Amino acid sequence: MAKRKYKIAFAPAAVRQLRKLPTDDQKRILRAIETLEDDPRPAGVKKLQGADALWRIRIADYRVVYEIQDAKLVVLALRIAHRKDIYRKGK
């Protein structure tokens, strides 16, 4: 039986945050997010404490916080930011 792929979706805030980044970083981040289609919990991924369904991947100095919706086979990117800003409230 073939492994089912997840669909990648972006929250509006994540799209805005991604567009503010330099083009080279945008490309690198998008490539990393695309790999989540096959395995939303790859090696090196961290489950965020205090949140039931939030996960984080590192891409150089940037972080992507996302939610895995296993029932719908969706990975929803919620926040994309530099590591110094990603965990601040309101970002």
Describe the structure.
The chain has helices at 12-19, 23-34; strands spanning 7-10, 46-47, 54-59, 62-69, 74-82. 22% of the residues lie in helices and 32% in strands. The chain contains two helices and five strands; from the N terminus they run βααββββ. The model has no long low-confidence stretch (mean pLDDT 91). The chain is globular and about 35 Å long. β3 (54-59) and β4 (62-69) form a beta hairpin. The protein has 91 residues and is an alpha+beta fold. Strands 1-5-4-3-2 form a five-stranded mixed sheet. It has one domain (7-82): RelE-like (YaeB-like fold, 2-Layer Sandwich), CATH 3.30.2310. It starts with 6 loop residues before the first strand and ends in a 9-residue tail after the last strand.
Taken as a percent bin, the fraction of beta residues is 25-35%
The total of helices stands at 2
Domains (count): 1
Distance between the termini: 41 Å
**What would the CATH topology be?**
YaeB-like fold
How do the strands and helices of this protein lay out in sequence?
Elements: E1 7-10, H1 12-19, H2 23-34, E2 46-47, E3 54-59, E4 62-69, E5 74-82
Parallel strand pairs: 1-5
Antiparallel strand pairs: 2-3, 3-4, 4-5
Key features of this structure:
five-stranded mixed beta sheet; 22% helix; YaeB-like fold; 2 helices; alpha+beta; 91 residues
Explain briefly what this protein structure is.
This protein is α+β, with helices and mostly antiparallel strands. It has helices at residues 12-19, 23-34, and strands spanning 7-10, 46-47, 54-59, 62-69, 74-82.
